[in-house]
Specification:
Blueprint (H helix, E strand, L loop, with lengths): L5 H11 L9 H5 L5 E8 L3 H17 L3 E8 L1 H11 L8 E5 L5 H6 L7 H7 L7 H7 L8 E13 H6 L9 H13 L3 E3 L7 H25 L8 H16 L10 H9 L3 E7 L2 H7 L7 E4 L8 E10 L6 H11 L2 H7 L21 H10 L3 E2 L2 H4 L2 H16 L4 H14 L2
Parallel strand pairs: 1-2, 1-3, 5-6, 8-9
Antiparallel strand pairs: 3-8, 4-6, 4-7, 4-8
Length: 422
C-alpha cells in the first residue's frame, strides 16, 4: 500500500490556487470524439532517441490517419514539476512518461492521476507481451498502472583505452578493487569517475550504491523501503564516509557546479575513465563521438550480487478524454514492430519478451549476462522515497559532499527529517 504524503496535499493546493497552467490542450481539442490529437509528455530525448521517437510517431500516424500525436518534451526536473502541477486537473497530457518507482510514478498513482489500464491489458493481450520483470512494476499498486517502456539497469561504464593506458588489465570484482582501480587511474593522471552535481540524482547513484555495499541487501532494503533507522546504523556512516572520500579524491574537479550533461562530455572525450550510467547510455556515448568498441561496462561491485535498476513506463492520464486512442498508440510503440523501430535507443533490452536485442548494441550481451547473474534489483532512492524525502536525501548528500555536514551526522539528520514528516 502506498503512503499518503504531504506532497499529495501540495498538489491539491497548487491546483486549487490556480498555479496550474494548461500546457497541453490535447484532450480538450478532441472533445471525446474518435480520433483527434493525443498529447504525450516526456523528457527531452537524445538525438538517437528523438529520431526513433519521430519514426514511431510518423509510422503510427500513417497507420492511423485519424489520430495525431503531439509530443511535449522537457528537461527531467521541469518534467517532474509540470506533472506535479497538473495532477488532479484536466490540464495535463493524455499520456505521460515517468519512472515506475513508488516515490515518483507511485505518487501520481496515489493522487489519482494514473488511469488503471486493466481493460486495455485484456483488450490487447499485454499480459502476454511483456517480461515478468517489466509487468511487476505496473502491477505493484493494484490493477495495471502504466505500460512498460524500459527495464533499465545501471552499471559502471568505463573507457577501455583509458584503462589500458593506466595499465589496468582486470575489472574490479570487489569494492576494494574498485577503489584500487580509481587510485591507479588517478596515479596515471586520469580522472577516475565523472559526475554532475547540479542535478542531485547523478551523484546519488554513487551514494545509493555505497549504501548497498556497506549495509548489504537486507539492511539497505530496510533503510530505503522499510522502517530502518538511518541514524543508528554504522553502515550508513561508512557509506557517507566513502562518498566523501570519492568526492575528495576520485571525482572530476568542480563536479558540484556542473550538470550531468556537462560531466558526460568528460567521459565522451576521454577525460574521465568511469561513470555510473544506465542501459540508455551506450547510444548517448556514441552520439557523443565515442567508438562502441571503446566502451565497456561492469556492475558496481557491492558484494550483494544485486543489479542497480528501475523501470520506466508510459501512463494514461485518468483525466484524458481519449484513453482509447492513447492506448492504441501505446499498443503500437510496445509491439514487436514498434520495439524494432525503437531499437536500443532507450535500453539495450526490450520489455517486449518477443523482441531480441538490437544487433547495433555492442553492450547488449554484457547487459544480458548482468541481468542473468543478478540476484535481484536495488532501486534508485529518488524512486523509493517520497518527493519530500528525496529532496532531504539530496540536501544531506550534498552537505556531505561540500564538507558542510560530517558523514557521521548524515544518517541521523536524514532520519530526523523522516520521523518529523511521517
Amino acid at each position: 500500500m502506498l503512503k499518503k504524503t504531504k506532497w499529495s496535499v501540495a498538489v491539491a493546493t497548487l491546483a486549487s490556487v490556480g498555479l496550474v497552467s494548461a500546457c497541453s490542450g490535447g484532450n480538450e481539442a478532441a472533445g471525446g470524439e474518435a480520433g483527434g490529437e493525443v498529447t504525450v509528455w516526456m523528457t527531452t530525448q537524445e538525438d538517437t532517441q528523438k529520431a526513433a521517437w519521430d519514426e514511431l510517431v510518423s509510422t503510427f500516424e500513417e497507420q492511423n490517419p485519424d489520430i495525431t500525436i503531439k509530443t511535449e518534451a522537457r528537461a527531467i526536473d521541469a518534467h517532474k514539476d509540470a506533472l506535479r502541477q497538473v495532477a488532479g486537473t484536466n490540464s495535463g497530457p493524455d499520456i505521460y512518461w515517468y519512472w515506475e518507482g513508488a516515490g515518483l510514478g507511485g505518487e501520481l498513482v496515489d493522487v489519482g492521476m494514473s488511469k488503471d489500464l486493466t481493460e486495455y491489458y485484456e483488450q490487447y493481450g499485454w499480459d502476454d507481451r511483456f517480461t515478468s520483470a517489466a509487468l511487476s512494476s505496473v502491477t505493484q499498486y493494484g490493477g495495471y498502472h502504466g505500460v512498460p517502456w524500459t527495464q533499465q539497469a545501471q552499471a559502471i561504464f568505463y573507457n577501455k583505452k583509458l584503462f589500458e593506458q593506466a595499465g589496468i588489465t582486470e575489472l574490479p570484482t570487489t569494492y576494494d578493487d574498485l577503489v584500487k582501480t580509481a587510485e591507479t587511474l588517478k596515479g596515471a593522471g586520469i580522472t577516475p569517475m565523472e559526475f554532475g552535481g547540479t542535478v542531485n540524482w547523478h551523484v546519488m547513484r554513487l551514494l545509493d550504491s555505497l549504501i548497498e555495499t556497506k549495509c548489504g541487501a537486507d539492511k539497505a532494503d530496510e533503510l530505503n523501503t522499510g522502517d530502518g533507522d538511518w541514524g543508528t546504523e554504522p553502515c550508513v556512516t561508512e557509506a557517507f564516509t566513502e562518498l566523501k572520500t570519492w568526492a575528495d579524491n576520485y571525482l572530476n574537479e568542480g563536479f558540484m557546479a556542473i550538470s550531468n550533461d556537462d560531466s558526460s562530455q568528460l567521459f565522451f572525450t576521454g577525460e574521465a575513465a568511469m561513470t555510473i550510467e544506465g542501459t540508455w547510455f551506450e547510444s548517448n556515448a556514441i552520439d557523443g563521438g565515442m567508438s562502441p568498441e571503446d566502451i565497456g561496462i561492469f556492475a558496481f561491485p557491492t558484494g550483494t550480487e544485486r543489479l542497480y535498476g528501475f523501470g520506466e513506463g508510459f501512463y494514461i492520464n485518468a483525466e484524458s478524454d481519449q484513453p482509447d486512442e492513447a492506448a492504441k498508440f501505446l499498443d503500437f510503440i510496445t509491439s514487436t514492430e514498434g520495439q524494432e523501430i525503437a531499437g536500443n535507443a532507450w535500453a539495450a533490452l526490450s520489455v517486449n519478451k518477443d523482441v531480441k536485442p538490437s544487433g547495433d548494441s555492442v553492450l547488449a550481451p554484457t547487459w544480458n549476462e548482468l541481468f542473468a547473474n543478478a540476484e535481484g534489483i536495488y532501486t534508485n532512492n529518488d524512486q523509493n522515497f517520497s518527493t519530500a524525502e528525496t529532496t532531504e536525501y539530496w540536501r544531506v548528500q550534498n552537505s556531505v559532499l561540500t564538507g558542510d555536514l560530517a558523514p557521521a551526522d548524515a544518517g541521523a539528520e536524514f532520519q530526523a527529517f523522516r520521523d518529523a514528516n511521517q
